[in-house]
Structure formats: structure tokens, C-alpha cells
Write a structure and sequence with these properties.
Elements: H1 5-10, H2 13-36, H3 43-71
Helix pairs in contact: 2-3
């Protein structure tokens, strides 16, 4: 099930980085399973990559909003 962007926006930026590490580790595991031929759900890699992109987008939004707060 994909991550909900609204739930991600409620999270702290440190928690987002922790979640990003988890998903990167999961992606590495799936890629290794794919290479060995033991991965049953081949769409898992694409789904994890999309979740990573969602997390990075939210992190970018949060950084941008902090930067705008400092300048105003």
C-alpha cells in the first residue's frame, strides 16, 4: 500500500530521513532478490521507488518552507 502524503507531511523531518533509510534498505533487498531470481512480486521495486520519491518530495517541501520562513 503506498504511503499517504498527508501522513508524511505530519511527520518530523528526522523521522522522514529514518523512513527514507528504511525504504532504501528495502529497495536494496528487493534488488538483490531480483538478481537472484527469488523476488515473487516484481512490482515491489517500482512501488518502493515511488514511496522513496514521495518521501524526498515531502522533505524538499519542508526544507523550502523553512527557507521561506527565514527570508520573510
Amino acid at each position: 500500500m503506498p504511503l499517504d502524503p498527508e501522513e508524511l507531511r505530519k511527520m518530523d523531518i528526522k523521522d522522514l530521513y529514518k523512513k527514507l533509510e528504511e525504504y532504501n534498505a528495502e529497495l536494496l533487498k528487493y534488488r538483490a532478490e531480483s538478481r537472484m531470481g527469488t523476488l515473487k512480486n516484481t512490482s515491489a521495486i517500482r512501488n518502493v521507488r515511488k514511496d522513496i520519491a514521495r518521501i524526498l518530495t515531502i522533505i524538499s517541501e519542508k526544507k523550502r518552507s523553512k527557507k521561506n520562513e527565514k527570508t520573510t
